[in-house]
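Hi support team,

I've been running sequence recovery on a batch of backbones for a student project. Most finish fine, but this one hangs at about 90% for roughly twenty minutes before it completes. I'm not sure whether the input is malformed or the queue is just slow. I've pasted the structure tokens below so you can try to reproduce it. Let me know if you need the job ID as well.

Thanks,
M.K.
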């Protein structure tokens, strides 16, 4: 499926409740007290008739599908709830791969993003806010993401994988990913200010 076709289909979901769709597609949101963190993305993939995909290459050949959560501030305005995972960091691969050939660039060249409103940890409902496209064509954004990636690469080369820190990067940060605070696996995450540029949210 081409990205433009998926974009048109997802536009029809604006204002609809993903929690209801999860029931329709029999996607598990909670198993006991444990939440399926990827449930919203699985619902979208079912809706589009696409296979569930977590591979490092872009989901659908040339483009990547992402879901992002928004939350309401006390004044009622919406803001980005949290950072967004892009792709895992394989230390050997990143150490030996320039940005132009990286998994990170491949994932970010063409993104289709669906934003949903997060109500609470119990997920009583989740209304689709909007559908957004991102292409890493802007020279300033491209340069900054490249700089963030190369900082991670240089750190791995000179100090080792363990020296990576979530404090690094302007748009993209390396952060631990996995179960528990003792996790040693890391992934590239898009920071909240960068996501706001894509969603065009103003606090």
């Amino acid at each position: 499926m081409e990205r433009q076709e998926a974009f048109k289909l997802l536009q029809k979901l604006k204002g609809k409740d993903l929690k209801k769709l999860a029931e329709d597609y029999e996607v598990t949101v909670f198993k006991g007290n444990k939440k399926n963190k990827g449930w919203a993305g699985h619902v979208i993939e079912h809706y589009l008739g696409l296979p569930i995909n977590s591979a490092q290459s872009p989901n659908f050949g040339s483009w990547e599908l992402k879901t992002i959560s928004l939350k309401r501030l006390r004044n009622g305005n919406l803001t980005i709830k949290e950072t967004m995972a892009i792709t895992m960091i394989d230390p050997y691969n990143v150490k030996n791969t320039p940005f132009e050939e990286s998994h990170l660039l491949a994932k970010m060249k063409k993104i289709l993003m669906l934003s949903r409103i997060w109500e609470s940890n119990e997920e009583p409902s989740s209304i689709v806010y909007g559908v957004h496209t991102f292409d890493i064509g802007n020279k300033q954004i491209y340069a900054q993401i490249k700089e963030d990636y190369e900082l991670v690469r240089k750190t791995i080369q000179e100090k080792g994988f363990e020296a990576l820190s979530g404090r690094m990067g302007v748009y993209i940060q390396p952060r631990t990913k996995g179960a528990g605070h003792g996790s040693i696996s890391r992934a590239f995450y898009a920071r909240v200010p960068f996501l706001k540029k894509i969603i065009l949210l103003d606090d």
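--
Follow-up from support: It reproduced on our side and the slowdown came from queue contention, not your input. The CA atoms of residues 19 and 30 lie 11 Å apart. No action needed from you.
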